[in-house]
Amino acid sequence: MTAALELNALTKSFGKTEIIRGVDLSIPKGERHAIIGPNGAGKSTLFNLITGRFPQTGGSIALHGADLAGKAPFEINRMGLSRSFQITNIFPKMTVFENVRCSLLWSMGYRYNFWSMVSRSPALTTGADAILEQINLTARRDLPAGVLSYAEQRALEIGITIAGGADVIMLDEPTAGMSHSETDYIVELIRTVTVGKTLIMVEHDMGVVFGLADRISVLVYGEIIATGTPEAVRADPRVQEAYLGAALEDH
Amino acid sequence: MRKSISLGVATALTLSVSAFAVAADTIKIAFIDPLSGPFAGTGVNGLHQYEFAAETLVNATGGVLDGDMFEIVAFDNKISPKESLIQLQVAIDQGIRFIAQGNSSGVANALTEAIDKHNRRNPDDRVLFLNYSAVDPALTNDKCNFWHFRFDANADIKMDALTDVMAADDSIKKVYIIGQDYSFGKAVSAAAVRFLGEKRPDIEIVGNELHPIGKVKDFTPYTRKIMAAEADAIITGNWGADMVGLGRSVLENGYTGPLYTYYAAADGITAAFGDAGVGSLKLVAEGQINPPANDRAAAYYEAFKAKYPDGNISQARITNVIEMLAKAINEAGTATDVVPIAYALEGMEHESIWGTSLKMREADHQIIQDVHIHAHTNDGVTFDYDNSGFGLLVDSTVTMAAADSPTSCKMRRP
Amino acid sequence: MDLILVNLIDGLVTGLLLFMLSAGLTLIFSMMGVLNFAHASFYMLGAYFAFQISLYLGFWMGLLIAPLIVGVLGAGVERYGLRRVHQYGHVPELIFTFGLALLIEEVVQFIWGKSQMAYSTPEVLQFTAFSIAGNAIPAYKIFMIFISIAIFIGLLWVLTRTRVGMIIQAALTYPKTVEALGHNVPLIFMGVFGVGTALAGVAGVIAGPVLGTFPGMAFVLGSIVFVTIVIGGLGSLWGALVASLLIGWITTFSKAYNLRMEDLLIALGFEKPDVIWDSPWRDLWSLTSPQIADILPYILMVLILIFRPHGLLGKRDA
Amino acid sequence: MSDQTATAPATRSALLPLAPWVLSALLLLVLPFIFTANSAITIMNQMAITIIFALAYNMLLGQGGMLSFGHAVYAGVGGFACVHIMNMDDFFATIPLPVLPIFGGLMGMGLAMIVGSFSTRKAGTVFAMISLGVGELIAACSVIIVVFFGGEEGISGDRTYGLPTFGVEFLQQIEVYYLIALWLMISAILMYLYSRTPLGRMANAVRDNPERAEFLGYSARWVRFYSFVASGFFAGIAGALFAINYEILTEENLNTTQSGIILLVTFLGGVGFFFGPIIGAIVFTLVQTVLSLQTELWGFYLGLIFVATVMFFPGGLAGLIMMHVPALRLGKLGRLGVPYLKTLGAGAVMALGGAALIEMIFHVRHASSGDHEMVLFWIAFDSHSILPWVIASLAAAVGYFIVRRTAPDLMEAWNDANTPDGGAS
Question: What is the 3-state secondary structure (H, E, C) of chain B?
């Protein structure tokens, strides 16, 4: 069985600076995988490489065995990978319902359709409402997304990310800037909406990572220095040395 | 919302009608020309000449028919064909039967076709088109119709007269033709080539080119070509900023020969040339301003200047339009049915206040008149332009120019 | 050969004039992200103010005072107009300057009327500097060249040698960071806008007498200034210079020489139809380079945007 | 500020959304009976054409977030194509005139497909500058390619040579009016429905956040391309109707001035709402054709209104109207009546006084000397006597004073009207 996502000797340079220095990683289907690492380790760059925002310098990325080289973000999305962003990235002028409905359009086969009304499709409406229900935003359905609270916007973003039915979900720091109660809420949400899907997340909050992830990779200076279960990673002396020690001191 | 605004249109329209409707017995002439935008200067000056002519030549002498007065109603067409057609419709709705327009042959083309169609489709309120300045030859040739009368000499006639004068000048061996890239510019160029070829086959046309209209910022490169071609004379149909730009550029860069033009006077152009134009700048046009043809003409001009100190009589033919229209209305005995008026205008002969005789040719509704070659000068100018001290002085005259010129017009009469 | 030299000088004058406009615009554009559609209108204001001043105090005082007034006006526009619109985003900003261009043209007509002004070169410069093969080069043109070059050098000096210039240069590339460093970015914006429009004013003062001072003068030049900075690359002063000269020379040479499409087509092996006036391709056959001279910059810009969106010397995407 | 996104709850009657359309259709039907003059009909035709064009333009600007400086060419080329069809005697005689706009639309669409293939790759400045460049190019071509564009004087045709439609030959303005009104309804409904389709919704999404849209599976570039092509189609229809109404097309239909005007119209009306451009087109046409009969300075006032709109009401006139919806929902709109009357009434006095001053300055400065008589607001007076100046200055000053005095009351009333009862202390 092919892995959901397979990175092979992936490198990325900006000018002369090498940010990602040969990453190998294989994430099997259905796994919840977290990528951690100190600031500037290249986590976001890695994310952007996988999702086609930047072209890679070397190596390969395969999604369900298919090479992603040279693919545009929308093509990668159609192949079953969906992502959220570090900075909240929704459609602020649209209603919450519209936000979710838009993210359903492609997967429901509407493509560049200009002959049917979105409001006439019961499947779209019920689908969007079901997702709103899942992310607990039904009460906010008809408000412009821009007026939601921060946590609600993050929840909406996760909703948009999963709505398209992608089976590989990538979340970029989903709990950044949240209070403890909000974090707990989002973690629960992520747990429920990613059942049966492959989840890859970048996260700073160790509580979140160790509570949610099946396996963890530690990225330091563009290289993965350890991959394994939370316990194994926690115990890894190199991780301790390179990262955890410093990070735990911070907290 | 929409309704209340639309009601506003109605009120505004009716009010604007009533604002102009001073007396019951007025014969209204719609003046459709640019009154705003870049060509407003020319348009407003033309309007003043019309108003003054109507007041002085008709109303002050008792009007036409049983004392009906002329009234000029101004419509701003922003020199746009589309706006002209809208204003034409407004004018017709106000019961106006006479449409005067002159600036831009493009607008004249649009108007003459629209008026032809209107008169065919609405026999009850037909209108006449008094074209006082649009000189595209096509208007009295292929595109002629019964409702259109041209009071200016067309581009071909002017060129005919101009080349008569040029042909007599043995010092001219090489001619450069330059004009704006549109119908009128092309007509001037074609006529120049044709007439020079007929009258002076030995003259070499060393350059014949068109430049984009109203877009050239700096004419220096063209000037360099003209200088390189060693032209003895330049012919151009340019007007407005293109005329000033071209003229100043050639004169500044060392050209001293004659520059034959159609429109290099008044509306700021005379002032812009000033001293630089003396000796070179020539202009072909009807209407003699300097020296004044007679006392009546001088008095008329003086009275005009008294009323409009900043104005110029740059289109002497406007008096002809007013006088001939008045005469035709009197002959026809009606001011509402334009068909007999048109028949009266056809073939009409008239003595203008500028002391020349005019004939409205029946075949194509093109007026035949004297055409002068004027020189731009400050010497012996009684009436200057732009209050600049400079003005136009008649150099030579071609009497009844091109009276027997052919026309391709096939006039269909009602 | 002589003619080439003459045309090089003419093209240089056109190009440098364009540069004075585009230099200010490219600074404004790259700092504030505003495509200032009214930039050429400030150029027009410069010409009109200088004309009015020259009636009383002579040409030279006009050259001195008019750009200052234009600059102050420009700064005012930034302070009380643009800054307000800024909060709504870039498109309204652009539309604001577009409306401002319309308004300025109307105001100019309101005050000075619609005719061309009799604004002319100063008497001291009304002589022929030198002649090349019978082609006179007026002294005023030489004066224009010197003024433009002086301004370019001055601008370069300010930008590279002074503290203010350093801040501006930094703000060109990292506007957010500069603000974070505690510099008063709104004040810098206002200053740059004022200086940029004042430069346009200078261009107006010295171009007014040659190219004519009339209400349409801004419109004639209007969009070509954008074209210049887009071709040159946003935020690049050198790019603006290169593009200005390029456009100056391209348009001058294509007007000064009658390159005919007919020759090109025949050279390519096409056969000229016998009855050319009846052919649907007649307009193509009769095409000459002067006819298309003024649209060449637009063609160039579209090609650049398609194949090299950051312009000749620019570092950022347009 | 969301545009037409609020979907009607399923419980509401299905007929309610139809109400504005039915009312508009009825209004279009009866208007010619209220305004019978041919010139009024000509102005209404012009309005309807501008409405279609502005709506098409707003598909780009408002819904797609693309700022075009050369959109006139799509309408223009569509119109030119239609005039050429009118001049193909044999072919034109076989098609009824009301079908002609489809050809114009297809022509505009075809051109938009060509240009869009490279211009829609990026939004923002790149798109705007390419549109400007292409617009200038095609406008310049109009005087060079005489075969198609007819040079400066343009080309003209005769609409009446088409196949008679139920005996109607479109000789009269009123017949043309109903043809245009029919196409106005068809186009407006189609464009409205377009905004409700998946593609229409994604156009909004791409406008707000192209990157996010890409990660939803949509190529931002193709979404923009389709919006552009659809806009080109409806612009072409507007051009075709222009051809039918005026029977002539010239360079002015293509040039950048025309492109600028449609931008102005759309923004003035308000880009955020579907009906914004409609209001913009009506107001602009009135200013252009009716106000210009009254004053030479119409362009000045228009510029002033436009700049003021951009500065103070970026939502345009439609935004201004929709600002009152919350108060209306609260049932407290009535409370604004008196304060409005006070402030706006005084504001109107101030504006009229100011306008009178401007007109008088203009008259004194530019009228022929000795011509002291001027007509303003249908009153004739001597512009060189002191009295009118005093009156105008007084009106402006008093108006200004009252506006300043009453503005706080208005603000208070406004806040009150927008606060639910009991919510505020």
Answer: CHHHHHHHHHHHHHHHHHHHCCCCCEEEEEEEECCCCCCHHHHHHHHHHHHHHHHHHHHHHCCECCCEEEEEEEEECCCCHHHHHHHHHHHHHCCCCEEEECCCHHHHHHHHHHHHHHHHHCHHHCCEEEECCCCCHHHHCCCCCCCEEECCCCHHHHHHHHHHHHHCCCCCCEEEEEEECCHHHHHHHHHHHHHHHHHCCCCEEEEEEEECCCCCCCCHHHHHHHHHCCCCEEEECCCHHHHHHHHHHHHHCCCCCCEEECCCCCCCHHHHHHHHHCCCEEEEECCCCCCCCCHHHHHHHHHHHHHCCCCCCCCCHHHHHHHHHHHHHHHHCCCCCHHHHHHHHCCCEEECCCCCEEEECCCCCEEECCEEEEEEECCCCCCCCCCCCCEEEEEEEECCCCCCCCCCCCCCCC
* CA nearest to C315, candidates C112, C141, C172, C110: C172
Under DSSP, the state recorded for C72 is H
Assess whether D400 and D291 both reside in one domain: no
Minimum-distance CB partner of B254 among C136, C221, C288: C136
Instruction: Tell me whether residues B221 and C288 touch, CB distance under 8 A.
Output: no
- Tell me: do D108 and D43 sit in the same domain: yes
Across A139-148, B140-149, B197-206, B208-217, least confident range: B208-217
Number of inter-chain CB pairs under 8 A, A vs D: 107
For A1-79+209-251, CATH number? 3.40.50.300
Query: Is C107 in the D-facing interface, judged by CB distances under 8 Å?
Result: yes
Nearest residue on chain D to C229, alpha-carbon basis: D129
CA A49/CA A10 separation, integer angstroms = 9
B233, B204 contact by CB (below 8 A) = no
Exposed/middle/buried for D268, CB within 10 Å: 0-12, 13-18, 19+? Answer: buried
CATH number at residue C150: 1.10.3470
Q: Is the pLDDT assigned to residue D2 strictly greater than 50?
A: no
Residue B344: predicted pLDDT: 94
* Domain co-membership, D355 together with D287: no
Count of Cβ atoms closer than 10 Å to residue B247 Cβ:
26
Give Cβ neighbours of residue D238 (< 8 Å, ≥ 6 apart). Answer: D49, D50, D52, D53, D56, D75, D78, D187
The domain segmentation of chain A, as residue ranges, is: 1-79+209-251
pTM metric for this prediction: 0.86
Q: How far is B108 from chain C (nearest CA, A)?
A: 22
* D293/D183 same-domain check: yes
CATH number (domain holding residue B46): 3.40.50.2300
| CA-based nearest distance D152→chain B, Å | 5
8 A C-beta contact, residue A229 and residue A213 = no
Asked if residue D239 lies in contact with residue D76, where contact means CB atoms within 8 angstroms, the answer is yes
- List b or e across A88-118, with b for residues whose CB sees 16 or more CB atoms inside 10 angstroms: bbbbbbbbbbbbbbbbbbbbbebebbbeeeb
Does C292 map to a domain? no
Tens-place pLDDT, residues D141-197: 887 888 888 877 788 888 888 887 777 778 888 889 999 999 999 999 999 999 889
- Shared domain check, B146 and B169: no
The answer, for D27 touching chain B at a CB cutoff of 8 Å, is: yes
Q: pLDDT tens across C34-73, in order?
A: 778 899 999 999 999 999 998 888 889 889 999 999 999 9
Residue D401, domain extent: 326-417
Which range, of A85-94, B57-66, C196-205, averages the lowest pLDDT?
A: A85-94
What number is the average pLDDT over the span D95-108? 92
Name the β-bridge partners of A170: A83, A200
End-to-end alpha carbon distance in chain C: 39
Radius of gyration of chain D (CA): 24
